[in-house]
Amino acid sequence: MNTAVQEIQPLVFTDSAAVKVRELINEEGNDALMLRVFISGGGCSGTGTCTVTMTANITVTATFNPAFTLTVTKAGSGDGTVTSSPSGITCGSSCSTTFDRNSSVTLSAGADSGSTFSAWSGGGCGGTGTCTVTMNGNITVKATLSKAFTDDPLSAQVTLVKAAHITELRQAINTLRSNNSLSAITFTDSTLTAGATSVQTVHIMDLRSALNGVYDALSRARPTYTDSTLTGSQTVIKKAHIQEIRSAVRGVE
To answer: Which of 93, 192, 221, 233 is the most buried (most CB within 10 A)?
Structure first.
């Protein structure tokens, strides 16, 4: 039994295509210019590879468009996801991609539970609505997200200091550390149980130390605190201790 093997012919990048690419590069004056290739014909479409079976003469058109990179960075003590329209960015996981020159891209930010979206910056964007940029160059946009704190603000003589206040600050500070390329901290009494774990001076000192690392990484002066030295059972944990750390967190978002 004979088995016919169908040969798949490679597509040829012609001299005229090379000339067109050179014209685009010269037009932009940028030898490092990136190009997006849109393929049509022969049953092909989009910007991926194009595979055709040569059962007849086939014409495939490749359209070259200059492209620029849009990069999203996330900052702050909270977390969430930034997506783009048209698709390409889901940050989270995919925070940088290319779009055609002069195309319009709209970014939207969604905060995770326990976080709020604070503001855009870069790319001419600001505020908390959507961010629309025109891709006339490489663009970086920053999305700042903030941790939402329980009992904010704390009221003297009214609000009790709770394990939740410490847990939230731990999460906020470790997010800040991650966003500034610092490792997460393993805190004393890693799991605090509401109604069972009492807040101790070591918990406050751990938070201050972990947050100082963020200030150091940013070459910022470290915060100053009420009762700069906390001593075991001799120092009473105050609402001011919590509120000061919250303020210091906001100071580096």
So the answer is: 192
Side chain identity at residue 45, one-letter code: S
Tokens of 65: 């468009």
Digit-coded pLDDT (tens) for 176-212: 999 999 999 999 999 998 777 788 999 999 999 999 9
Q: Which residue has the tokens 């490749």?
A: 62
Query: CB neighbours of 87 closer than 8 A, spacing ≥ 6?
Result: none
Asked if the bond preceding 10 is cis, omega within 30° of 0, the reply is no
C-beta separation of 225 from 244 below 8 A: yes
The residue type of 18 is A
**For residues 60-70, average pLDDT:** 83
DSSP string, 192-226: --TTTSPP-HHHHHHHHHHHHHHHHHTT-PPP--S
Cis peptide bond prior to 66, omega within 30° of 0 = no
Q: Output phi, psi for 67, to 5 deg.
A: -135, 150
Nearest residue to 192 via CA among 179, 182, 178, 202:
202
Q: What is the CA radius of gyration of the chain?
A: 27
Q: What is the dihedral of CA 226, 232, 236, 240, to 10 degrees?
A: 30
Give start and end residues of each alpha helix (H) in the chain: 15-28, 163-179, 201-217, 239-250
List, in order, residues 6 or more apart from 75 with CB less than 8 Å away.
142, 143, 144, 145, 179, 253
Count of CB atoms situated within 10 Å of the CB of 85? 13
Write the burial class of residue 54 (CB in 10 Å: 0-12 exposed, 13-18 middle, 19+ buried).
exposed
Tokens for 50, please give them.
Answer: 């194009």
Taking the whole predicted model, whether its pTM rises above 0.85 is answered as: no
DSSP state string for 51-80: ----SS----EEEEEEEEEEEEEEEES--E
